[in-house]
Amino acid sequence: MLAQQHRRRSRWILRVQQWDEPRAPYPNLWHEGMPRHVLAFESVVSRMRLGDLVAIYYPASQRHPERSRKFLGLCRVVGLRRADDPRYGWVDLEAAHRFVPPLDLGRAPRRVVLCCDPGWPEGDVALFRAVYEAAREAGWSPLPEEALPEEGGGEPARAEPRVVQPSAERPPALAVRDAAPQPPERARESEPEIFVGAAISDDRRDPRNGTWLAVLSLTEGRLRVERLEPTSRSGLHALLRDPDARLLQARAIGLGFPFGFPLPFAERLLGGAFPDEGWWALARRMERLPLPDYLMRLQEFREREGSLKRFTDERAGTPSPLSRDGPDLAAMAYHGIKLIAEERSRYAVRPFEKAQAKPLLEVSPMALRCRLAGEDAEAAAVLEALAGTAVCPVQLEAAARRACAG
């Protein structure tokens, strides 16, 4: 069974721009109208496997209008390599089928997507299937392991995504070419561990100073705030989608909003019993649910059932995610679940996934504040409590302290 799972391939949609600038530090390399070596973010490369099938989409381009906003063909992943810049990795491709002329489906991928995990958004799966079937109609014959399941029959289970590792640590068939040697164990132990946290706004207007991002380094049992900045929800979304070098180094990212709802309300949104695929069915529903409809169903449920709590809310002593009383946790959950559903292919949402990608964790700044300094404590008292805690005391520079106090 394990060998059979490893033969099952994922399907990707990549938007690949040809870089004609010879001075570009990392130009994508093309051959006969198809990409052969593509630079991608490490968060994407780390989830790819050799043999994965990729639909190549060419984004808008004034220089190449004949292929602009069209699918160029299908490729297979034949190599994964580190780039000089740790934020990126190289994906080596071989052409499986080229569309002549390029295929215009009238639809564009929203982003780099992995589109055939169980429960993946139906629009992405349908878009990849349309490209795949068009290639077959044009005469392409897929390999046996590249066959798609029958429509409506469920997507095949996928083996756990593999993080790119040095070739010495991987089986020969999955070795990463040109892998850089790892530093000695002692050197790695001396480097700080990076963690990221963010609290988002419940304001519909999405003000910049309503959402904050913090980057912290852990060294010898002490946390130091390296960076503290307002981002807005849309800015946080952009950083999750295209993380900078420091965010790429993070061991985990904690997000200060509810990732889910009490089961009765989740089933109310889904219109039936909670399915086997679980949280991702709810996330897909939230992606398609307009905010006014969500708030109307929330109000109807609260009038009948009240603001039920989850088990974690009871244990932490925090309000229900259906609460709308300062802060509006129900609105935060709506915006937050949609945000992380958008970036599913880059992260593993705990505890709903066990993939070896960077974990996203639900955290509660409110619960920590109450535990350390009391519910009504002023900002200065909370900062002093954080600096004096016995476990991982927090060190803030003067600028970060002023931002928190303000």
Can you walk through the features of this model?
The chain is an alpha/beta fold. The protein is built from 14 helices and 14 strands. The chain has helices at 2-7, 42-45, 122-137, 185-190, 232-241, 245-248, 263-270, 279-288, 291-305, 311-316, 329-342, 365-373, 379-388, 398-405; strands spanning 11-15, 29-31, 34-41, 53-58, 70-82, 88-103, 113-114, 193-199, 212-219, 222-230, 250-255, 347-349, 358-362, 394-395. The strands form two sheets. A seven-stranded mixed beta sheet has the order 2-3-6-5-4-1-7. A hairpin with a 2-residue loop joins strand 9 (212-219) and strand 10 (222-230). Helix 8 (279-288) crosses helix 11. It is globular. The termini are far apart. The model is unreliable at 1-7 and 153-188 (pLDDT under 50).
